[in-house]
TrEMBL record:
Gene coding for it: Col20a1
One Pfam match: VWA
The keyword Secreted belongs to this UniProt entry's keyword annotation: yes
SUPFAM superfamilies assigned to the protein according to its UniProt record, in alphabetical order: Fibronectin type III (SSF49265), vWA-like (SSF53300)
SMART domains in the record: FN3 (SM00060), VWA (SM00327)
Domain (Fibronectin type-III): residue spans on this chain: 166-255
Listed InterPro entries: ECM_Assembly_Org, FN3_dom, FN3_sf, Ig-like_fold, VWF_A, vWFA_dom_sf
Stretch list, region Disordered: 145-166
Location(s), subcellular: Secreted, Extracellular space, Extracellular matrix
PANTHER family: COLLAGEN ALPHA, COLLAGEN ALPHA-1(XX) CHAIN
Protein name as catalogued: COKA1 protein
Stretches assigned to the VWFA domain: 1-133
């Protein structure tokens, strides 16, 4: 599967889209480059939310690998998003080109870094990594599969998550200019915890809150007024992440002062009064002389 990103990640094709090597190579040849910003944290969150799901072709029993290819420093918190993936057992390989930040690549990538971090000076040099990277990826998959197949224990995860592992009925209420309240119905099998990810729909730094699996509501605060937010709620189990709930809502605009009145005029002063604006801590009052010929 492959996703491109700038300020808005875009899935080019899912894991289940193609079944042969030739089909994948043809898709790569037809790929159009997406220029723009470098919101790597948002892209990693997109991969978790959209691409590593059963309906996108991800199999619960398969090893999960993410290969990040970037030519710049992230404009949001890539480390937080990467840590979320790694905590779920997803291995990240980081490949930098040109202006990539090597320190950031090492933060994002999984251990051991000598196998998961690569950096080249320009795009044509990426071809020099293919052989080694292919070998490392295949070896890592075999190692991890062997570890999990050792012993007689079996993962307690169903093939299809469905309502057993996924919450339902996300409701967003009590929306103000800087907050909103989330509630949802828990799945049949209680999760270990929930991950709540939210960010402005027009691009912005994703923020994340983790709550206990017994909780089914949350107050989001310190939001930006008059802004549309995307909200996702993911149930996290020991060995799998259930399907997420998603919602969209906009915070209210800041309230305005009303009923401006002018009184007590003199040759060099006036008194202004108005109805208060809810939540305002200060007011900025601007005045200027009217242009010639205009009404005073």
């Amino acid at each position: 599967g492959l996703s491109q990103y700038s300020s808005d990640p875009r899935t080019e094709w899912d894991l289940s889209a193609y079944s042969t090597r030739e089909q994948v190579l043809e898709a790569v040849r037809n790929l159009r480059y997406k220029g723009g910003n470098t919101f790597t944290g948002l892209a990693l969150t997109h991969v978790l939310e959209q691409n590593l799901k059963a309906d996108a072709g991800a199999r619960l029993e398969a090893e999960k690998l993410v290969i990040l290819l970037t030519d710049g420093k992230s404009q949001d918190d890539a480390n937080l998003a990467a840590q979320t993936l790694k905590n779920l057992g997803i291995e990240i390989f980081a490949i930098g080109v040109k202006n990539a930040d090597e320190a950031e690549l090492k933060q994002v990538a999984s251990e051991p870094l000598e196998l998961t971090v690569y950096n080249v000076l320009d795009f044509p040099l990426l071809s020099s990594l293919v052989g080694r990277l292919t070998q490392v990826l295949c070896t890592r998959i075999k190692e991890r599969s062997n570890k999990e197949n050792t012993g007689s224990t079996v993962k307690d995860t169903p093939v299809n998550a469905g309502p057993q592992l996924s919450p339902t009925d996300l409701k967003i209420s009590a929306v103000t200019s800087k907050s909103m309240h989330l509630t949802w119905s828990p799945p049949l099998r209680p999760p270990k915890k929930y991950r709540i990810v939210y960010y402005p729909s027009k691009g912005g730094i994703p923020k994340e809150v983790v709550v206990d699996g017994a909780v089914s509501s949350l107050q989001l605060s310190n939001l930006t007024s008059h802004t549309e937010y995307l909200v996702s709620v993911f149930p996290v189990y020991d060995t799998v992440v259930g399907d997420g709930l998603r919602g969209v809502t906009s915070t209210l605009p800041l309230s305005s002062p009303r009923s401006l009145r002018v009184s007590e005029l003199s040759h060099n002063s006036i008194r202004l009064s108005w109805k208060a604006s809810q939540g305002a801590t200060h007011y900025l009052v601007l005045c200027s002389t009217a242009p010639d010929g205009a009404e005073d």
